[in-house]
Amino acid sequence: MDWNRAGLIAAFAVTLFAIAYAVVLFAGLASLSAPSAPIEDPWFTLLEILIVAMMPAIVMLIMALRASSPKGSELLGRWAVTFIIVTAVLTTIVHTALFVLRRAGVIDENLRPVLLSFDWPSVPYILDIIAWDLFFGLAMLCAAPLADGTRFASAIRVTMTISGLLALAGLAGPIAGDMRLRAIGILGYAGVFPITATLMALHFRQRIKTSIP
């Protein structure tokens, strides 16, 4: 398999998905009647579809980075792929369940705030924190040293490390009981990681141009 080409496609896809997600999120927030109101359809449905669709591209991106990593980094590569797969599985389960169950009407009204909302401490919110603040953060820290071979590698290592550390810092929200602190984690994966993905597209493009295996 041509991992450089796969990495380029995956990085480009992640960047496009991230831009689309930001646009839809902004539109959803702009449509709110009050700042505390939840985002409604069609914006909520579009956000669910985009986040699930993005996950295979993120997994492929980390797998491509692992395949092109320097010798001696095999263990970090395995952990990075493992952690990002856990992130993808949890995210897909949570958002697919929300998408389906909200429309099926099979959940008792008294249980909906716990099982079908993103209000703390609902089950989806807890699983989302485990996926993104914990496992995504660990995946980024393990994957950062894998970037090598181009002039973009050092920038990828720096931004990926920052993304991972910010994601893990988001765990301060549930630990301290102040969910405003989770915004730190959101900055890591929604703010910094798209920059990393763009750099990775340039990284794999250069590897293809210079015929680096």
Characterization of the model:
By secondary structure, the protein is mainly alpha-helical. The protein has one domain. It is 75% helix and 0% strand. The chain contains 8 helices and no strands. The chain has helices spanning 3-30, 43-67, 74-104, 112-115, 123-143, 153-169, 172-176, 182-209. α1 runs antiparallel to α8 (182-209). The longest helix is centred in the middle third of the chain and has 31 residues, at 74-104. It is elongated and about 60 Å long. The mean pLDDT is 91.
Structural class per helix/strand content?
A: mainly alpha
- What Rg do the Cα atoms give? 18 Å
Number of domains: 1
Distance between the termini: 11 Å
Give the DSSP E fraction (strand runs of 2 or more residues).
under 5%
Which regions have little confidence, pLDDT < 50, spanning 5+ residues? none
Q: For the report, how would you describe the main beta sheet? A: none
Mean pLDDT, as a whole number? Answer: 91
| Share in helix | over 70%
The secondary-structure element order is HHHHHHHH
How many DSSP helices?
A: 8
Which geometry do the CA atoms define? elongated
Number of strands: 0
Helix-strand blueprint:
Layout: H1 3-30, H2 43-67, H3 74-104, H4 112-115, H5 123-143, H6 153-169, H7 172-176, H8 182-209
Which key features would you list for this structure?
mainly alpha, 213 residues, 0% strand, 8 helices
The gist of it:
This protein has 8 helices and no strands. With 213 residues, it is mostly helical.
